[in-house]
Amino acid sequence: MRKAVLELEKFDLKLNTNFVGRNFIYCEEIDSTNTYLMDRENKNNTDGTVILAEKQTEGRGRKNRVWYSAKEQNLNFSILLTSKKYFGKNLNLINLASSLAVSQAIENLYQLNAELKWPNDVLIKGKKVCGILLEASSQGSKIDKVVIGIGLNVNQSMFQGEFNLPPTSIKIEANENIERERLLAEVLNNFEELLEKSISKPSEVLREWKSRCRMIGEKISITENDETKYGIFDDIDENGFLLLKSRNNQIEKIHLGDVSI
Ligand code: BTN
After folding, report:
1. Axis crossing angle, helix 202-211 with helix 92-110, rounded to the nearest 10
2. pTM
3. Closest residue by CA, ligand 1 atom 16
């Protein structure tokens, strides 16, 4: 059997979590790591399971977009959450905690400024370095699992195709080859800590998220389902929703959408 490209021992040594990533599934190729964890057939995975694929043949982005990523260069993985305690008020805080975990890891390890774009993109100098796709399933009216899919551009040096935001990678921005094992462990360590904080101190998660979002106070447009709204990005409320201030100073709560300045 071919040796894993990702050095699992190196990753394990840096992983400092109680449950996130403790059950770790490593694949060379899969359709999509999100699809795998969302599939009811694969139901024996424990809370905090992480599946990472070196190549996805049907990687999915938000709004049914395709997620392209060069084989073995980046970190494309999904985290499974099954513990109901995290599904409290809404899932937006998990969304914000995930992107915050990635941006903190990029800043701590490579001293790069990683900004956040609502609801969950991570940008470096205005270019997208990471996208997150959060999906959930429910039994009756209750959410029974949440899958957080993270596509982080790490060592890819060229991007081809059309993108709604120009892409970049950490290697391009830091000008060095990045050790994926350490970065993955750092993201998961941060994520578990922020997940606990989203229950014990949600306002702190929001405060940290907002401090990395340069769009607050700016004129924006927000598009959802072919409808575009314009206004000032006023704030994020306590549940993680975007508050859009219109010309007549009315505040509208936005649940989903693509934001542009
Ligand atoms: C976006 O920006 O539109 C979200 C992209 C999310 C991509 C990740 S890669 C790992 C996981 N598996 C998928 O099929 N998608 C997510």
Report:
1. 50
2. 0.95
3. 149
